[in-house]
Design goal:
globular
Length: 230
């Protein structure tokens, strides 16, 4: 039972990171870990710079979701540009998450900390709403296309590419990511996520959950939404 509870906590924590990352997580998740962003190539479209990703996430998380989908379909980017864009999304995600954690720990009293958590939870719910709306639009578009074999094959190809990005990420890469993280920062992040989960429960809000790379989840093809006992 303890192992099951720990696994559930880890999955929910991953969803919190995803949502608080303002949408930048979704592409970064399939690229392979949080690595330092390098100098942006001159030809890389401006919307994929770290600052532009962060600006879009603050103004409208749905914009980042659209950008993520467009990123997968673009044929005008070199592999080097794609890699740089993914690194930038990683960096944007980590910076945004770091800002949330710093804001929480800067609060002095329990009331101040709860106020910070409430603000972040409200932001998360806004993003979830945007995700659901984009999902609905995508499903309507697919329904309108009907059984067009060409369109269906194109959709399946995109999803397969995303699944493969996850599957091809080696254990060595994940180990390197883990070893290069600041342990103090990691501990702070997990403490913050734990506080988020507790505060959400106090407000009667069920935290989202993301599954593995096999299905379609709230944040893209990362897994379907599960029920409370899943």
């Amino acid at each position: 039972m303890a192992a099951s509870t720990g696994s559930k906590t880890f999955v929910i924590a991953g969803a919190v990171v995803a949502l608080l990352g303002g949408g930048a997580w979704a592409v970064a998740h399939f690229s392979g870990g949080a690595k330092e962003a390098e100098a942006t190539p001159a030809a890389l479209p401006e919307e994929y710079t770290v600052e532009k990703i962060k600006e879009a996430a603050k103004e409208d998380p749905a914009v980042v979701m659209d950008r993520m989908r467009n990123f997968m379909d673009r044929t005008d980017l070199t592999e080097e540009q794609r890699e740089q864009a993914r690194k930038n999304m990683n960096e944007a995600r980590d910076q945004m998450m770091g800002q949330h954690v710093d804001e929480y720990f800067a609060a002095k009293t329990d009331d101040e900390k709860n106020a910070v958590l409430d603000k972040h939870i409200d932001e998360m719910q806004k993003f979830m709403k945007a995700m659901e709306e984009r999902r609905r639009q995508e499903e309507e578009k697919e329904a309108a296309e009907g059984d067009d074999p060409e369109k269906k094959a194109e959709r399946e190809k995109r999803r397969e590419e995303m699944r493969n990005r996850w599957a091809n990420r080696s254990q060595a890469e994940r180990k390197t990511d883990s070893e290069t993280r600041d342990p103090n920062k990691s501990a702070q992040r997990m403490a913050y996520i734990g506080a988020m989960m507790r505060r959400s429960a106090e407000r009667g809000i069920q935290m989202p959950r993301f599954g593995g790379p096999g299905g379609r989840g709230p944040g893209g093809p990362g897994g379907g939404r599960r029920g409370p006992g899943g």
